[in-house]
């Protein structure tokens, strides 16, 4: 992204990001200023600590996982492109986009990609399966002390039972998609980005 | 209308005065006997003058007539309701309102044929003062607040602007039609048309809402239809009053229009203001009612009714007043009153609302037959047409305008649902009936209104369900599974929003919540700081659970999702593929939705002296997060290269206890070296109820705080289950061994040494120790050595456990 000296995004970069993610010009600039405000080290990239400085994120049960989602495998820093790429998952799906001729790759905010993002939040070990353990982990994190393990276990059991079609007691991505096919993921996993 | 009630009263009194029949004066001395009086003036029974024998059997109908008839009507309508629900299939396809109207029609037919006139319940006073408030209170009290406030802009937009659009549009078009000579409607002027149009733009989606619920349409559509109905009542009444006032005036000047607009704001905002005022007063009152629990529900009803009446006094929107009163009140009152009162309030509100509604639709049917109608084909048909057209247009145009402001825009299907769901109902009916008689063609209006209501309720009401399903409106799947995801999504979305530094309506919500916590709660809620909100919530939930179990289960206690029964089932099946009962699901749903962390509470800074409980909340989340990340970073499950990163990740050197950077409880994260979920952060694990044989799950131990309520009864269970500890040890050790030692501090806590829990009650949360060797060998029931002597190694202490205020036993 360049040194601090060139804090302004270059136009061609904005164009590229726009094409890749679908954000509008003003959204990109706004998010860029947010990016720079988070980037305390001023080196054009964000590290995990930068994210953790956001207080609300710190107490979000899924905070770490969300943060993790920004960082590609094995890397420690994320640049603005990567930042936007991840955020693009949450762009609302517009109707006219649905009709657009599908390019070779789906837009980042397609339903499948949104679901993939969510799936990856649960599937920490990236084996493309949400095992019962992983599910319990997530559930336990979300829920307070009021729920006994029994109850939580049965909730997790129920979840798996409903989704699991091949009987391996874990949820694969396809099963995940299938069980959510009636849910309006487009609504639930979308943020209206301010202009 | 006033005339009718006056007439009725006059009738009544005239009967007493003997104008309809001669009633002899009371016999001097002796027993006062009132002979039965025939209402229709038939021959009266004359007691003979001077006869003074004691009558064995007398009948005094007149005295009880009015309450008696009311009761009979109510009963009749309720029987009808029972009748429908006997055969469930009917209510699926035919909305209840249709059925009620049909029964009303039948009864009306009967009454008409015997020339009996229907009770004069449709005077304006009776309707607006007695029958409408319960319905509105019911709607307002059970309004789902979160979706409502998220969509409040849209709701108000449709309610206000939509109604205006409809009224004016229909009014104008009808006026245009009236100009056509052939229809014979010349005498209807613009004001009257506008008045009529206002009456029929009041949508009443009672039938639609139940269909929507059954079909589980998406939340936005549901709440917009719901909210629109509620608030457009207010707008309609305002417009109605305005137009009826104006209709009397020969000439309308522009200043009147301006005044009308001003009046609208006064009415709307005034209504809300009164509602909020009364809501707060009610909440404040309930703060002091702890000694008079029996009359707590009374306050709710009296205050809301008072809000309604006071608003009526000032001729501002009473509906808005009572709705806002209910909304405001509900939140605080439900914290102040006892559980029973809460249940009572809910039930009574529902009951009254349901009864009123039933009655109204019933009377609609009756009155349809028995009034004098004036039929004018042109007017009526055009009214139908225009109502339809303008509503459709209105929805279309308004959606286009408001969609850009919405997070989730309405698509065409939603719009169709919105437009088609515009049924007319009770309000239109009442307003039509109470039109002032000065309007010449009143019967025409009444007829037209009734036709519209019947048409929309029957045709649209019955057809909306198949249509909605056919066009496949976006649904909200209430499946438990997706509830999980839904809630998870919420956290994800909230996280992302925070990341972007965005404040959508969360911002205002947060602001309000701060204000709420800082000021309002302290004033309005009794004991708002007496105990940790988590504990209070927990106790309440346990109570509710217990009551639910008693309620929903008839006899077969094991069918209820109690902990005990869950446990027993687990014991009996190796890999239980349990049937999850509906009650189970509901419970799970309730549990989840009540217990999910609400991370948007930025309450840490605002709880003043008692910040501790709230801290715990976020600390717990932090603890769990750390734990789960650690766990997830096990070798073999993740790249090992990530391992060192995990430390950087948490700025916590491995093996070192958290220092003062974090609050003490976070030291717990070290302890989470344990593999299994349930041991994380809950050192007070106790195999109280035995362990499932599933290998992947460890000892299912109830949480410490569960103990507070279940302590006594389950002590025995505890003893029983003790021997079972050992069985799962192998499981645990297996998982243990997969754990890499390098990342575990030497002083590991072993929750696996949960045999210590057998130490009985209150102190079980002390069961953290250092026995590292226990990790390798399953230990059956070694008494917790370090139990009493809390190791001084601060890093292994779990202050969470020691928090005294959470253990009632300690108090």
From TrEMBL, chain A:
One of its GO terms (molecular function) is calcium ion binding. InterPro entries: Calcineurin_B_homologous, EF-hand-dom_pair, EF_Hand_1_Ca_BS, EF_hand_dom. Belongs to the calcineurin regulatory subunit family. CHP subfamily. It comes from the Eukaryota. It holds the Pfam family EF-hand_7. GO terms for cellular component: cytoplasm; nucleus; plasma membrane. It is found in: Cell membrane; Cytoplasm; Nucleus. The keyword rRNA-binding does not apply. One of its GO terms (biological process) is protein transport. Keywords: Calcium, Cell membrane, Cytoplasm, Lipoprotein, Membrane, Metal-binding, Myristate, Nucleus, Phosphoprotein, Protein transport, Repeat, Transport. SMART domains: EFh. Residues 26-61, 110-145, 151-186 form the EF-hand domain. This is EF-hand domain-containing protein.
From TrEMBL, chain B:
It is a multi-pass membrane protein. The gene is slc9a2. Residues 752-764 have a biased composition (Polar residues). Pfam families: Na_H_Exchanger, NEXCaM_BD. This is Sodium/hydrogen exchanger. Residues 678-811 are annotated as: Disordered. Residues 717-728 have a biased composition (Basic and acidic residues). The keyword ATP-binding does not apply. Residues 559-661 form the Sodium/hydrogen exchanger regulatory region domain. Its main location: membrane.
